[in-house]
Amino acid sequence: MATTNDLKNGIVLNIDGQLWTVTSFQHVKPGKGSAFVRTTLKNVLSGKVVDKTFNAGVKVETANVDRSEMTYLYNDGVDYVFMEPDTYEQISVSPETVGDSAGYMLENSTVTLARHEGEPLYVELPASVELRIAHTDPGVQGDRSTGGSKPAELETGATVQVPLFIESGEKIKVDPRDGRYLGRVK
C-alpha cells in the first residue's frame, strides 16, 4: 500500500482487481477545499487510458510488477518463447500478451518482460530496433502524392512507411511503439 503522495510515473496500481500504470499525475491544491491528485492511468492488459482523481493522502494499492531482461528465442507456432539469460529457464507467452511487439522482434533479441505474480503482462521493446527491409517497391522520382513515403515490409513481417529512397535489403531503425521510421543504419 502507498499513499497518493507516493505516486509517480510508471508505478502500477491495483484498482478493483485490474492493473493500471500511472502515465501522468498532478498534485492540485485549490484555494478552497482539500488537495487532490489528478492522474492519467493506462490499463496494463487492455491499453485503455482513463483519468482518475484521488483525494490527497488516500491509500492506494500498488502491484508488484517484475521487469526482467529476457531473450526472445522463437515462435513455436502458437506462443512466443523467451529465455531467462542467467538461468536458461524458458517461458511461453501468448500472442495476445506480446501484442504488436511481435512485428519488431528478431530471434535472439533482448526484450523486457513484465510479470505480475509470475503471470506475463506485456513485452517491452527498446526505444528503437534495427531491422532489414525484406521488400519494398522502388520509389518513383516525382511521386509525391503520398508525402514522399512508401510501404516497406520488414524481415519480421511488419509493414512501416519509409522514404522513397529506401530500397529492399537496407537496414533501418524503427520505433516499435508506433512503427515510425527513424533512419538508416550504416
UniProtKB/TrEMBL annotation:
Family annotation (SMART domains): EFP, Elong-fact-P_C
Main location group: cytoplasm
An example Gene Ontology biological process: peptide biosynthetic process
Protein location: Cytoplasm
GO cellular component terms, semicolon-separated: cytosol
Entry-linked CDD domains: S1_EF-P_repeat_1, S1_EF-P_repeat_2
Superkingdom of the source species: Bacteria
SUPFAM superfamilies hit by this protein: Nucleic acid-binding proteins, Translation proteins SH3-like domain
NCBIfam families: efp, PRK00529.1
Record function comment: Involved in peptide bond synthesis. Stimulates efficient translation and peptide-bond synthesis on native or reconstituted 70S ribosomes in vitro. Probably functions indirectly by altering the affinity of the ribosome for aminoacyl-tRNA, thus increasing their reactivity as acceptors for peptidyl transferase.
Protein name: Elongation factor P
Species whose genome carries this gene: Actinopolyspora biskrensis
Origin organism lineage: Bacteria, Bacillati, Actinomycetota, Actinomycetes, Actinopolysporales
Gene: efp
